[in-house]
Design brief:
Blueprint: H1 8-13, E1 21-31, E2 34-40, E3 49-50, E4 53-55, H2 62-74, E5 82-91, E6 97-106, E7 120-126, H3 139-146, E8 154-160, E9 168-174
Parallel strand pairs: 1-6, 5-8
Antiparallel strand pairs: 1-2, 1-4, 2-3, 2-7, 5-6, 8-9
Amino acid sequence: MGKSTLGPAADALRGNTSHPVYLRTLCFIRDGDSVLLLRRRHPPNQGLYNPPGGKIEPLEDPLDACLREVHEETGLRLGGAALRAVVTVLTRATGAQWLLFVFAAERPSGSADPIATDEGDLRWVPLAEIPALPVVSDIPLMLPYLFTPQEGVVMGKIHCENDEADSMLDYEFRTR
């Protein structure tokens, strides 16, 4: 059987890959005009604000992973979340491919304040203030698509020099 012409993603699905593929979730939780962000204590992106999220474990689908990660990192139990974007991050230096499933959710009514964990400190940040914070560089690119009435999932591709999001070289987001 010859090499796939569909590229690294198809090869990865078949187990034929020479580069690492990482499956991750991010969840933007909104409370009014604010979003819950976590200031990361660990690499990658240490010291930067990012929404809760993390690895998709074996036998998990992206939504299950999203809900689990939100609970582990914040103590919040979401009833659900809407898939709003799928972003592929390609890294030049390592050849790694990160596939991010980006969700949006509302803060559960009557929920207690989120609790900080070893992952980082949590903060409700007004949407208008996010660009002024030290955030992972793809966050401002995604925000316009997350809390709009427009239906559908945004597809994005980001090229980075390495596994740190601040090494972004180029990006493209497509709504259709």
